[in-house]
Amino acid sequence: RETVLTVEDLRTHFATDDGQVRAVDGVSLSIPRGKTVCVVGESGCGKSVTARSILGLVDPPGRVVDGHIWFRVAPGAEPVDLAALDSRSERLRRIRGNDIAMVFQEPMASLSPMYTVGQHFVEAVRLHLDLSKDEARDLGISLLRRVGIPNAEHRMEAYPWQLSGGMCQRVMIAIALACGPALLIADEPTTALDVTTQARILDLLAELQEETGMAMMFITHDLGVVAEIADEVVVMYLGTMVEQGPVDEIFHDPKHPYTRALLESIPTMGSGRRSRLPSIRGQVPHPLNRPPGCPFHTRCDSAVRGVCDVEDPPTVTFGRDRRARCVLYDTAAFAGQVRRTPTT
Ligand code: SF4
Ligand code: MG
To answer: Per the record, which residues fall in region Disordered (predicted)?
Structure first.
């Protein structure tokens, strides 16, 4: 299938007084039309910064310092490198909201308490589509119905604070979908919601994706959500990608020790209960003090001393579309141990 988004070796760094924070440091992924890639990892791993980088929404002192973000606006179109566009450019502003839509964790925070749902709609839609106020309103009503909001006409007059969190998130999704985006980026969109509402929203997104063929990048720390919605999974740790592959393979045969640790702590997979990412032995190191070698070596039960704490682990490919960044699978690295010893 044609890819909608291809991120190549993305690096987003923050220059702080205390040093350089490599918030995203070499992320590559691609999302075909109609498919969902889940980006998963503990908080601070760089998932949200990855999303914001794609959208050109990284605030200073952060900056995309390297990489490509190839985005295909429409099927068959030539990909555009978003990383090469100025984040304030008209072109990128048009793509954002028009061709790439976004939904964030706190719907309340994205809606103004001063405006009704209808006013939000008219505002958002008219920015991007050439519609009259009435047409924008009608589109709003039909989309509210589409996302399962009862009494849509009546809800157009409601203020956000008169709606539940789940209802607000539906409103946000309706607004996001108004322009028929090729890509939806959702950053923990269901984290603040109760389990039942979460499940409904996930079903809704899957349904809408089926209908429209939009690609989705879904950021979450919740492996239950991943199991439900992902086609592909990208596991991140300290700004780097440690493993990626098709969801079934990741769940049934995780290669990377970090992925394994994450999965081992889900006691009730498949029973409908969700569990959050557990705390794994030790602490995530501070991003300013990223350990040398493998970033996970300070917490890894399989770490090989003298190797993992010294050398960047190689990216090893399994089959056609799986990768893990760990020395354990690199036989050459162990053989290399011998070669690396000085011979003269
Ligand atoms: Fe563990 Fe070493 Fe693999 Fe890193 S490279 S995950 S420390 S075994
Ligand atoms: Mg986040």
So the answer is: 269-290
Range of the domain at 77: 3-82+219-335
Structural domains in the chain (count): 1
Ligand 2 centre and the CA of 46: distance in Å? 7
Instruction: Give the other-Cβ count within 10 Å of 271's Cβ.
Output: 8
Please provide residue 142's backbone torsions phi and psi, each rounded to the nearest 5 degrees.
Answer: -70, -35
In whole numbers, what is the pLDDT of the chain averaged over residues? 88
Global pTM reads: 0.89
Pocket test for ligand 1, best of 240, 280, 294 (most atoms within 8 A of CB): 294
Contact 291, 309 (CB under 8 A): yes
The pick from 260, 297, 298 for probing ligand 1's pocket by mutation, whose C-beta has the most ligand atoms within 8 angstroms, reads 297
Give pLDDT, residue 334: 58
Whether 300 lines ligand 1, by a CB cut-off of 6 Å, is yes
Inside any domain, residue 158:
no
- Most confident segment among 163-167, 174-178, 213-217: 213-217
Q: Residue 331: pLDDT above 80? A: no
CATH, residue 255: 3.40.50.300
ipTM of the complex: 0.96
pLDDT band at 335 (very low <50, low <70, confident <90, very high): low
DSSP label at 276? B
What does the pLDDT read at residue 68?
98
- What confidence tens digit (pLDDT) does each residue in 36-70 have? 999 999 888 999 999 999 999 999 999 999 999 99
Q: Is residue 315 part of a domain?
A: yes
Domain annotation covers residue 194: no
Quote the CA–CA distance of 239 and 290 in Å, as a whole number.
10
Which ligand 1 atom is nearest residue 242's CA? Answer: 6
Whether 325 is in a domain gets the answer yes
Instruction: Kindly report the length of the chain.
Output: 344
Q: Is the CB of 313 under 6 A from ligand 1?
A: yes
Whole-number Å distance between alpha carbons of 103 and 187:
6
